[in-house]
Amino acid sequence: AQTVTQSQPEMSVQEAETVTLSCTYDTSESDYYLFWYKQPPSRQMILVIRQEAYKQQNATENRFSVNFQKAAKSFSLKISDSQLGDAAMYFCAYRRYRDDKIIFGKGTRLHILP
Amino acid sequence: DARVTQTPRDKVTEMGQEVTMRCQPILGHNTVFWYRQTMMQGLELLAYFRNRAPLDDSGMPKDRFSAEMPDATLATLKIQPSEPRDSAVYFCASGFEWEAFFGQGTRLTVV
After folding, report:
1. Residue A14: its pLDDT value, please?
2. What end-to-end distance do the CA atoms of chain A give, in Å?
C-alpha cells in the first residue's frame, strides 16, 4: 500500500527567509503524481504544486518549488521569500494515476515569524 | 468561478442522531471523494466515486456510514447513528484527470 510520510509536524521560518518541508512516500509504481496542498486557517484545501513522476525536471510555481528525488522517494517543498500569508498546514499527497484516490501525509504546520 | 459546494458548513448534533452532509461537485468532473480530517489521523479517505460508481469505501465504518451519488450534481455522506468520535471536518472533493478541487468542508460536532 502506498504511504506518505511528513516527519516535521511543525516548522517556523522568519519572514522573507527560505524554508523546506520534507516528504517521503512509498510506492511500487513507476508512474504517479505528487502534490503539495496548503490549508490556511480558513480550512480550504489549496493546490500549491504538482509533479509528474515521469518528468525529471522539478516543478516550480512562483516562490514554490520542489526537489523530487524519485530513487529516494523524496518530494520536498521549498518556499522562498516566505510571507505571512504562507502560514498554513501543508500536506504532501500522492496519486497513483489520473482519477485515482489521493493519499495524504499527516501535514506540517508552518509558522511565519514577522 | 467553478467550485465544490458543501453543506452545511457547520453542524452540531446530539449523539444518536442522523447526519447528512451534501456536496455539489464541479460540473464535468468524473471523480468525487469524501475525506475526514482529525487532529490525530489527518486526512483519511472515506470513499470515492468515479462516474458516480463507488470504487473504494474501505476507509468508511460500514455499520454507520454510507456514501451515495444519486446524480452527477449531488454526493451525500450519511452517518446514522452519529457518535462523539465522528466529530471532525468532512471534506468533499471533485476532480477530472489529475486535478482535484476541495470544498470548504463540514465541521461536525457530535455532543
Report:
1. 98
2. 41
Distance of alpha carbon A74 from alpha carbon B68, whole angstroms: 36
Is residue B33 a contact partner of residue B48, using CB atoms and an 8 Å limit?
yes
Which residues of B sit within 8 Å Cβ distance of A?
30-31, 33, 35, 42-43, 45, 48, 50, 55-56, 89, 91, 93, 95-102, 104-105, 107
pLDDT of residue A75: 98
Residues of chain A with pLDDT under 50: none
Spell out which residues of chain B touch residue A34, defining contact as CB-CB under 8 Å: none
**Residues of chain B scoring pLDDT < 70:** 1
- How is the beta sheet containing B74-79 ordered, strand by strand? B5-7, B19-24, B74-79, B65-71
Q: Is the dihedral of CA A7, A96, A79, A74 positive or negative?
A: positive
The predicted pLDDT at position A2 comes to: 81
Distance to chain B for A80, nearest Cα, Å: 25
